[in-house]
Amino acid sequence: MAIYLTKESKVLVQGMTGGEGMKHTRRMLAAGTNIVGGVNPRKAGRTVDFDDRAVPVFGSVVDGMQSTGADVTVVFVPPAFARAAVVEAADAGIGLAVVITEGIPVHDSVAFTTYAKEKGTRVIGPNCPGLITPGQSNAGIIPADIAKPGRIGLVSKSGTLTYQLMYELRDIGFSTCVGIGGDPVIGTTHIDCLAAFQDDPDTETIVLIGEIGGDAEERAAAYIRAHVTKPVVGYIAGFTAPEGKTMGHAGAIVSGSAGTAQVKKEALEAVGVKVGSTPTETARLVLAQLEA
Q1: Active site located where (predicted)?
Q2: 190 labelled catalytic
Q3: Is 265 part of any known ligand binding site?
């Protein structure tokens, strides 16, 4: 099985006719994603040819949903238009909006994640690589050829580390890999994914990738203690970050000892999560857990 995204998912791409949208739509189609349309009000009624597939362009998300039954949208619009794009998708009643766009102002992210939640639309991102259920569907920019279907569920703040762990564990495979994004405000959290993987019968082990800044990993640790019975293996990026400097993602802000990699590691280990010191060691811990 999978979480959030399956072979049955019907996917729209907001911003499909732009440069990034075109490139990644072609990659998603090659991965088997059922892309049923793009959205661009200025190009409504046209079709775009992707090799052997002609994809229609709709003037709005609601038009695309009514014509195709779409239940997922992937957002590739520029930062200035991202808020309006997600609000439009939520107003249309779509179930899942995957926001790839980076550089979105925080006040816009606060507004559209709150609004989407009120409307019943799950947002993944912003500033994320999206999610992939190997062998079924790929919504975003995660390379589809670095992993196969399998028993591991992965949730990560970091796109690059998502790819690395997928590659390191490619022989075992994954149920679903979710890149939730590293901005200060995101729609779907570690905890949301932990709950979904806990309920997924085909996910045997969960990999949680965090990074310095904020307290998301500490909150995830508390949730694991109370609700997760499946094995969890973790990795925290940022052990070598210079003290007092903001590093990497917009959310990687450390204040005193709060938000440091060591504090997060200790919080996870206190609830039984094995935490690797490198991505490669983390992969070895996962393999050991699956063989136990």
Answers
A1: 249
A2: no
A3: no
